[in-house]
TrEMBL record:
InterPro entries on file: RmlC-like_jellyroll, RmlC_Cupin_sf
Protein's UniProt name: Cupin
Originating organism: Ornithinibacillus halotolerans
Gene3D superfamilies: Jelly Rolls
SUPFAM superfamilies according to UniProt: RmlC-like cupins (SSF51182)
Top-rank taxon: Bacteria
Length: 119
């Protein structure tokens, strides 16, 4: 399990075409990728299971906890990204609710675009 940040502080200011915003790059794939949005309500959980392919979880809103096979939960909040390798056991849960984007693809490598976080 690896932790990354995709918040504003890890982005780059974009001014092309009269633009004024911060872009935090996340991932690029050349092969098929599945992208989904999970709405975890109060006491929501994504049960303990193995990743079928490499998986990147992006916390958009709220906060919660993630773990891998080590059975130690790690706190995550908006702007955090968690990466699990193929076949890695993992679980995600929240007390108050959390909105996450999940990207799954055989060729994910978040280290190409995001900095590792110290969690």
């Amino acid at each position: 399990m690896e932790f990354y940040r995709f918040d504003k502080d890890n982005g780059k200011k974009i001014t092309h075409f009269n633009s004024d915003f911060i872009m935090s790059r996340i991932i690029q794939t050349n092969s098929k990728a599945n992208i989904g949005c999970m709405h975890l309500g109060e006491s929501g959980i994504v049960g303990y299971h193995q990743a079928v392919v490499p998986q990147l979880l992006l916390v958009v809103d709220g906060e919660g906890y993630v773990r891998n096979e080590e059975d130690t939960y790690h706190y995550v909040k908006s702007g955090d990204a968690v990466f699990w390798q193929k076949d890695e056991w993992h679980e995600t849960k929240t007390v108050e609710g959390m909105l996450v984007i999940v990207i799954e693809s055989e060729e994910l490598d978040p280290s190409l675009f995001m900095k590792l976080a110290n969690i």
